[in-house]
User: Fold Alpha/beta hydrolase from Lactobacillus jensenii.
Amino acid sequence: MKYFNKNFGDIGASATFYLQEANKEIDINRKSPVMIIVPGGAYMWTSWREEEPIALEFLSKGFSCVVAKYATEGLEFFHDKNNDFSKEPVSSFPNPLMDLARIISYTRSKAEEWNLDPDSINVLGFSAGGNLTAQIGTYWKKDWLQKLVKLDPETYKPNSIAISYGASQTYIADTKSEISKLVNYASLGHDQSIERQKLINVIDADTSDCPPTFIWHTMQDPLVPVENALKLASNLRKHDVDFELHIFEKGKHGLALGDLRTDSKKDRSQSNIQARKWVDLYLTWLTEHKLIHLF
Assistant:
């Protein structure tokens, strides 16, 4: 395995690469599918629980993995009320989308050198990262995004996307609580106009260019209502996009792998025997779409 980090742009984005290496004992010409992992963190930071543990899980399934760490101010910034909140945060739209597009494009450009399958670039996002994943799936073909990143859209087009308890609707209209104000600031900056809200909230967007989409959520999620997943699925259906949707009854927000490897709670509330099956369901779905060949 090759393991390294690379910075993208000049505002703090980076990616961590976990690359399979072809071996002559198996098949020296084998090309591995790619999993681009997009962690959550309310656009304030990126959660480690949705970074390396996810990469190691899919690395073990034969993927080359890339953790896309879009630029954020970092959680410590939001804990210190003396920090300058008058400045525009690096995480405000469309900066994270541009970061992700560049990371995908760079990864695909290395397909031959790194023995990657350029036709199996799959993007898997969690929570806010799920929102960002939905954005790249929805907007990859838009002229305005191409003008921003100055790249051929085909280079950052995902072959599939997966949204794990994704915040498809990130802007919080009720701004009475401090956390709501912070989430709105982190995701939109100071310009929280209706037009920008609609851009980051892809529930009502034209998703006709979206690649095949896998969605999973839980009924009990207290932070991102299950209606996010249901509305997004309905939108995909409206635009005749292939999708698979799994709603698990139990489980709080932020389950990640759904077992002790990613459980940060003393009461083990981030583990769930049903919801943790999402990985196998996802792998089966990818196999059905001929994006991986495990069997």
Observations:
- The chain has one domain: 2-288.
- The chain has a mean pLDDT of 94.
- Residues 95-109 form the longest helix (15 residues).
